[in-house]
Specification:
Blueprint lengths: L9 H17 L8 H24 L2 H27 L7 H26 L11 H23 L5 H5 L1
Length: 165
């Protein structure tokens, strides 16, 4: 699937939910952490969605990939800080929230990794490099692949061409 706005990308949406969850926890009355820990955790959480957005808007696959890895690193940073505060007795009253946020950060990391893996194997260099000719080329290629798939599905199960694929 192709997206024209980063706001429609599931990984960005998940990252926003992560940031909202972190802010909800750190702005709550039961937060007992230092101001610097709170600030670092909030910045790292917001960095995940911000880096997805910035990479997407850059217009090239290589730049997007670089920013996806930065976003993934930020998700790891969030998870690491959550692991730290989870061990601190002062945060015992936030165990459930911390556990949910760790799961959300891990989900972000997995989605970003899958997206990066997909992009690394893609022929598309990014929006900045697309012109009418290259768009037509990729559309033709996709239509040909879809047509070939449809033909294969219509072949009888024991057809020799099915055994080769």
């Amino acid at each position: 699937m192709t997206y024209s706005r980063y706001e429609d990308i599931p990984a960005w949406q998940e990252a926003i939910l992560l940031a909202e969850g972190v802010y909800d926890m750190t702005e709550g009355k039961v937060w007992t952490g230092s101001r610097s820990l709170r600030d670092q955790l909030e910045r790292a959480a917001l960095s995940v969605s911000n880096n997805i957005a910035e990479g997407f808007e850059r217009g090239t696959t290589n730049e997007l990939l670089a920013f996806l890895y930065i976003a993934r690193g930020s998700a790891g940073e969030v998870r690491s800080m959550l692991c730290f505060i989870e061990q601190r007795p002062a945060f015992n009253n936030l165990k459930s929230q911390i556990s949910n946020l760790k799961s959300a950060a891990e989900s972000c990391s997995r989605q970003l990794r899958a997206w990066a893996d997909y992009l690394q194997n893609s022929d598309i260099k990014g929006q900045r490099h697309l012109n009418e000719k290259s768009r037509q080329h990729f559309d033709s290629k996709r239509k040909a692949e879809d047509f070939q798939q449809e033909l294969m599905e219509r072949l009888p199960p024991n057809h020799p061409l099915r055994r080769r694929s």
